[in-house]
Amino acid sequence: MVRVAWQNRDQLPFAWRILRDGVCDGCALGPRGLRDDVIDGIHLCMTRLELLRLNTMPALDAAVLDDVPRLRTLTSAELRQLGRVPFPLLLERGATRFRRLTWTEAEHRAGARLRAAPPERVAFFTTSRGLTNETYYVAQKLARALGTNNVDNDARLCHAASTTAMKRTLGVAAATCSLRDWIGTDLLVVWGSDLANNQPVAAKYLHYAKRAGTRIVVVNPYREPGLERYWVPSVARSALFGTALMDDFFQVAIGGDRAFANGVVKELLARGAVDRTFVVAHTRGFDDLEAALAAQSWE
To answer: Is the domain 179-251 a CATH 3.40.228.10 member?
Structure first.
């Protein structure tokens, strides 16, 4: 929190206005300012705070664009810290510095390239962070006006594996519950996910789930520090002292998830702990799974 405040010290009033009135560009919980549609209290996470500087930073010093070889040695984080790009730039083949373009020239160059390319050679790729739904709408309308259906988004690529698996197993390629349902449930299993770092706002729900008595089990090849203890910035006590999240940790070998899942089901069957009524009503192929597991030894 102190580091974020220091980074934005030159734009503190603007930074506060973004947090108070803006839309969070780090998640999809419908946040408006410091509130969201899912849980009461302040909506604030480290992702939002880390992204704050992208909105408050000044334009970069154009002099840094004169040394392309040096720029190529910088990491993506270091490049972002140089500041915002305030005008169109062109790096021509063989050049060692960027050349500034007018907006008119940039638009003409882009338009000429788009007109020259056949539709099947044109593709649009949008990011999932920092863009509004209106921007996505305009992008796909432009793509269709140019005659191409090659439109993609990094959110689809990111979640393609999980949505495919959920569609095949649950029948729907999305969550079947609300984050609010975590709070007070008996058992919450975090499987193969660094949830606290990849979806930090979810750590707030884990915090309240712990307070409500939920047992949190983590299955992962690596013992993620963020799931052992996490500092939730929107909860004062947690922000100061942290919250111990996981109750149990099961370390599986990389690629050993299926074997572990089979072992869990095999043990549940041995204990007679399977809800047969639910299985009959809502699953297919369980008899085949049961037979396959019966043929497997623990060794």
So the answer is: yes
Q: Which two tokens stand for residue 108?
A: 């003409």
Mean pLDDT of the 84-95 span = 91
Residue pair 220/193 in contact (Cβ under 8 Å)? The answer is yes
Q: H/E/C letters for each residue in the chain? A: CHHHHHHCHHHHHHHHHHHHHCCCCCCCCCCECCECCCCCCCCCCHHHHHHHHHHHCCECCHHHHHCHHHHCCCCHHHHHCCCECCCCEECCCCCCCCEECCHHHHHHHHHHHHHHCCHHHCCEEECCCCCCHHHHHHHHHHHHHCCCCCEEEHHHHHHHHHHHHHHHHHCCCCCCCCHHHHCCCCEEEEECCCHHHHCCHHHHHHHHHHHCCCEEEEEECCCCHHHHEECCCCCHHHHHHCEECCCEEEECCCCCHHHHHHHHHHHHHHHCCCCHHHHHHHCCCHHHHHHHHHCCCCC
Encoded amino acid at 157, one letter: L
Whether the CB-CB separation of 235 and 210 falls below 8 Å is answered with no
pLDDT tens digits, one per residue of 16-33: 998 888 877 666 666 678
Separation in Å, CA 35 to CA 20, 32, 40, 44, 59: 9, 5, 7, 8, 30
Contact assessment for residue 229 and residue 243, using Cβ atoms and an 8 Å cutoff: yes
Domain with CATH 3.40.228.10 in the chain: 179-251
Percentage of residues in the chain having pLDDT higher than 90: 49
pTM of the model: 0.74
Confidence of residue 235 (pLDDT cuts 50, 70, 90): confident
